[in-house]
Design goal:
By secondary structure, the protein is α+β, with helices and mostly antiparallel strands. The chain contains 29 helices and 16 strands. About 50% of the residues lie in helices and about 10% in strands.
């Protein structure tokens, strides 16, 4: 496997500066002009009135309903399910830009080019086979009869590209004139025997992998055929048939089972409109559910659920329901799904587990009980929090000290796999209650571990665990920790009179420094308008503010004025990226960031810094001529600032 492609940050920023997010989003969302911005119905969740806004000046989109936001690359990743590299390539192609590959020798670049061509050749071969399988389905009465008996319509069969591989050993020889091509073996369409089974000409014996089976093409998120699943057609009256019921393509350069989900390409739009994804265990489950009004189903491909599966699903929806048979095998598969889902179970996501009665699969359950009953069944599925507790306490007698201790031991790795947040905090409380000890005592007994993702050393710092009130951005405390930090409350009467008309925020920033960061990162051109004194003052602020202003100043010199989207992209990997992203999280896209507001903020910041310096100098001014002259200068500067004469 080739190493991951590395794209220079400078190219990504240049791409975002050239791209128009309104144009990119507008290809998928009907946008209307709304003042300085554009609005429309959010493509990421169902809504009747527009809450989705796109800003041409900031080159950013934001939905006030579901909270999705980002730049043009982020939109392609969210909407089309692309990974980062795929989105960059797609966007670059739109603007006729060639994506460079960082730190690669000519030989490595050539190798990558050959790999891409090889992958494209394999998908072309698979597409050609799929075309033939679909044609063969129309000519096979028994295959068509079977699908009709399963309740599938011709429209559903067409939507999923269903086909039929006829009986016989070498039917694909009529599709591919060079049946001896090694590409047919590499794509998984043809099987070769070992050397000891060569024919009289010394050639390997080869034959079609799929014979007399209903064919389910497996598509990647771009809709390309990358493999197949084949189902045996049952013979009426026969007790058993040779071979496995389902036969899957082997793993190939284009098909890795642990990364792909059957039906995701077909379901991608329905996941957003229906609000959740139903993960099932088979191809026929997915197709039958679509027939019965549940087009939001996908299936794993003959393998247990993987982290890659879960991560890919959460690109399209914040709610996943795993459906399993109620037998022992289903319970084992559910436990595996629980374990791989835990690191992704943030407070804004929902994971549930649905266990069907032993005598049913989703198709038969809907047939017997109806669409509405299955909908209720899904809505009543077991939440991840409850299933975590049930899994940990299975086989533990909580009426005994030994059983409670065993339960605590089994619950520990599951709880620690959760991301820090409200859900983790609530589960800690529930586990501690079942064990019969306090939360702090349970954490102490569990003990932190270097390998633990969410050890006590991190968790104990949260305000919820300490029992303190969460500090919000409602008001700055006034405690000074930098030479230039405002000594007055940002929401004081004086501050409100200066800023109220300029801050249509849902919630005010915690300091003037925060607001200065918001304005200058939203409108980088204003940095060029500041005086050298103001530049020096902002860059001298303690972290994170000063470090961010220094970085922005460097970007201006190297790449010129950039959009907010390009700045945020370039900042990825920076020590203060997460802090900055949080600062902008609830900032309205249409917020005005005027030079007048910035100027008034900088004046107040400088006045506060002068006041702090004067407090230190005045006691020395009577005996120190240098201090005396500095006091005179600062008093004069403050007077000019107050009168509006200073620049």
């Amino acid at each position: 496997m080739l190493p991951k492609m590395s794209i220079p940050q400078t190219f990504i920023q240049e791409l975002l500066n050239r791209a128009d997010v309104v144009d990119i989003v507008g290809r998928h969302v009907q946008l209307k002009k709304a003042g300085a911005n554009f609005s429309g119905l959010c493509p990421f969740h169902s809504e009747k009135s527009p809450s989705f806004t796109v800003s041409p000046t900031k080159q950013f989109f934001h939905c006030f309903g579901c909270g999705k936001n980002g730049n043009a690359i982020g939109f392609l990743m969210e909407h089309a399910g692309m990974n980062f590299v795929e989105a960059v390539k797609d966007l670059a192609q739109t603007y006729n830009m060639v994506v460079p590959e960082e730190s690669l020798s000519p030989e490595e670049r050539a190798k990558r080019g050959e790999h891409r061509e090889h992958v494209q050749t394999l998908t072309d071969i698979l597409e050609k086979a799929n075309t033939d399988y679909r044609k063969q389905l129309k000519n096979s009465p028994k295959a068509v009869t079977y699908l009709k008996e399963r309740g599938l319509s011709g429209e559903i069969a067409k939507d999923f590209g269903l086909g039929y591989a006829p009986e016989g050993w070498r039917n694909l020889a009529s599709v591919f004139p060079d049946y001896q091509s090694p590409l047919l073996v590499e794509s998984g369409l043809v099987i070769t025997n070992s050397d000891e089974h060569q024919d009289h000409k010394g050639e390997e014996k080869r034959y079609d992998r799929f014979r007399d089976r209903i064919m389910f093409p497996i598509r990647n998120i771009k809709g390309e055929c990358i493999g197949f699943g084949g189902r045996v057609i049952p013979v009426p009256g026969a007790q058993a048939q040779p071979g496995p019921k389902y036969l899957n393509s082997p793993e190939t350069p284009v098909f890795i089972k642990g990364r792909e989900l059957y039906g995701l390409f077909e379901a991608r739009q329905s996941l957003r409109t229906m609000g959740y994804c139903l993960v099932t265990e088979g191809y026929m489950d997915v197709v039958a559910l679509a027939q019965w009004g549940f087009p939001n189903a996908v299936a794993t491909l003959g393998t247990a659920c993987t982290p890659e599966h879960v991560q890919k699903l959460f690109r399209f929806t914040d709610s996943v329901v795993f459906s399993f048979d109620g037998d022992a095998a289903g319970k084992r598969a559910a436990r595996k799904a629980l374990e791989v889902s835990l690191p992704f179970a943030s407070d804004t996501r929902s994971v549930k587990f649905l266990f069907l009665p032993k005598e049913h699969d989703p198709d038969s359950y809907i047939r017997e009980h109806g669409h509405d009953a299955f909908t209720r069944f899904v809505s009543d599925a077991t939440p991840l929090s409850r299933y975590l507790i049930e899994s940990a306490r299975m086989g533990c007698d909580l009426d005994t000290a030994e059983g409670r201790a065993q339960f605590a031991s089994l619950a520990k790795p599951l709880w620690q796999a959760l991301p820090q947040g409200v859900l983790q905090s609530q589960l800690l409380n529930e586990i501690a209650s079942l064990v019969g000890i306090g939360e702090k005592e349970l954490i102490r007994l569990w003990g932190p571990s270097e390998s633990d993702k969410n050890s006590y050393s991190k968790f104990k710092d949260s305000n919820n665990f300490q029992g303190k009130e969460n500090r919000t951005n409602a008001g700055y405390t006034g405690k000074s920790n930098t030479p230039y930090q405002a000594s007055k409350n940002y929401n004081s009467r004086e501050a409100r009179s200066s800023y109220a008309s300029n801050l249509p925020l849902r919630r005010g920033p915690s300091s003037r420094q925060d607001r200065a960061v918001q304005i200058l990162f939203n409108d980088m051109k204003q940095w060029e308008l500041l005086s050298p004194t103001q530049h020096t003052m902002l860059c001298a602020l303690q972290a994170p503010h000063g470090e961010l202003f220094k970085w922005m100043d460097q970007q201006l010199h190297e790449l010129g004025v950039q959009s907010f989207a390009a700045l945020m992209q370039g900042l990825k990997g920076h020590a203060h990226y997460d802090w900055l992203a949080k600062l902008f999280k609830n900032l309205p896209v249409d917020l005005e960031n005027t030079p007048q507001e910035l100027s008034s903020i900088l004046v107040e910041m400088e006045k506060d810094s002068i006041d702090q310096e004067l407090q230190l100098l005045i006691p020395r001014a009577g005996s120190d001529p240098v201090a005396y002259e500095r006091v005179r200068f600062l008093n004069n500067r403050r007077a000019r600032l107050k009168s509006g004469l200073a620049v």
